[in-house]
Specification:
Length: 339
């Protein structure tokens, strides 16, 4: 059985970068926070640590980077309660309980700072340009979210309160009395320079319930009552958030039951009963909203690609200034001392 599971701890959203890194830190018994500039080897070190635990037969959770899905921002080993995490912007982290629970590894010690200082104007210009490019992408995402919310307003009106309550009650009846546990937050999907990417590793459970919702209908409004009940029962909860609005839920697993807006094979499908005449009256509005949403999302992804290209150029300065012999020695020491 594959011991690796992949997920995102953050996404580029309508409100900017949004992540659940503090949630990861709270979950861990021991955390190593890695610092250092771009291109210094943070992701590579974490991947090597993950492989180390996989080879010992342990499950490893890889939290990928929404800026570059091929990189990881964190690696978590549930059996050990051990977390390695990138503690640099845009998800800066510091120890909560230094020494006793958390430590810092600064890979910046491998950099030739004198070489970087000689190129500070070029480096500063790239940092500034990347920041402005991300801000532009977020404006497009905010426009896309506005279109989605306008669709949600149509469906909210068409989903009459008695029918909504019936669906909510049906969903609540499917909440199991199962394993007690805490609550975790992350993203199964993230908006990246490669588009909207999905990690399907988690879309499996003994019982799967697929909410068959039209584009723009707010799944969070149906999932929040389930989450509230699960909290009351103190059941184990995995909260998977919306990649465009990180505060809202797209999927929720309670014990061994998954409630999802995806369509995994074998899932029980549940459709909302809405007033179709109301929806038909707004057909052109819904169609327009979807077209503008798609256009804005496509443009945002294109701009994120520009940010990725600039970041690659920025990394080159740091890679050229790295002492890879020292990095190799540090990597060896860290891997040998893993708990």
């Amino acid at each position: 059985m594959d011991k690796a599971k992949h997920v995102y701890s953050g996404s580029n959203t309508a409100e900017g970068f949004f992540g659940y890194f503090e949630d990861l830190q709270r979950m861990a018994k021991r955390t190593l926070i890695i610092k250092g500039g771009p291109g210094v080897g943070k992701s590579t070190l974490m991947k090597k640590a993950g492989v180390h635990y996989e080879e010992k037969g342990m499950e490893v959770h890889y939290y990928h980077c929404s800026g570059d899905p091929d990189s990881v921002d964190a690696v978590y080993v549930p059996a050990k309660g051990y977390l390695m995490v990138d503690g640099t912007a845009p998800h800066r982290l510091d120890p909560v309980c230094p020494g006793a629970m958390d430590g810092i590894l600064n890979l910046g010690v491998c950099l030739n700072e004198g070489m970087l200082a000689e190129q500070k104007e070029e480096i500063a210009a790239l940092f500034s340009g990347i920041s402005h490019t991300f801000a532009r992408a977020y404006r497009y995402l905010k426009a896309a979210e506005a279109m989605r919310q306008d669709c949600a307003a149509v469906y909210r009106k068409a989903f009459l309160p008695p029918r909504r309550r019936n669906m909510e009650n049906h969903l609540l009846s499917l909440v199991p009395d199962g394993e007690k546990g805490g609550e975790q937050h992350a993203f199964l999907q993230a908006i990246t320079w490669k588009g909207v990417v999905q990690c399907a590793d988690w879309l499996e459970a003994r019982q799967m319930v697929s909410l068959m919702l039209p584009f723009g209908m707010d799944a969070d409004e149906l999932l929040q009552p389930i989450l509230h009940l699960a909290r009351q029962k103190e059941l184990k909860r995995l909260c998977w958030h919306d990649p465009l609005d990180g505060k809202k839920l797209s999927h929720l697993q309670v014990g061994d039951t998954l409630f999802t807006t995806a369509s995994p094979q074998g899932a029980v499908e549940i459709l909302p009963e809405m007033e179709q005449d109301e929806i038909k009256q707004e057909a052109s509005r819904l169609s327009f909203n979807r077209a503008v949403y798609d256009l804005c999302l496509h443009q945002a992804v294109d701009v994120l690609s520009q940010a990725k290209e600039a970041h690659d150029r920025l990394e080159r300065y740091y890679i050229d200034a790295m002492d890879f012999g020292r990095l190799q020695a540090i990597t060896k020491e860290v891997l040998e001392e893993l708990p």
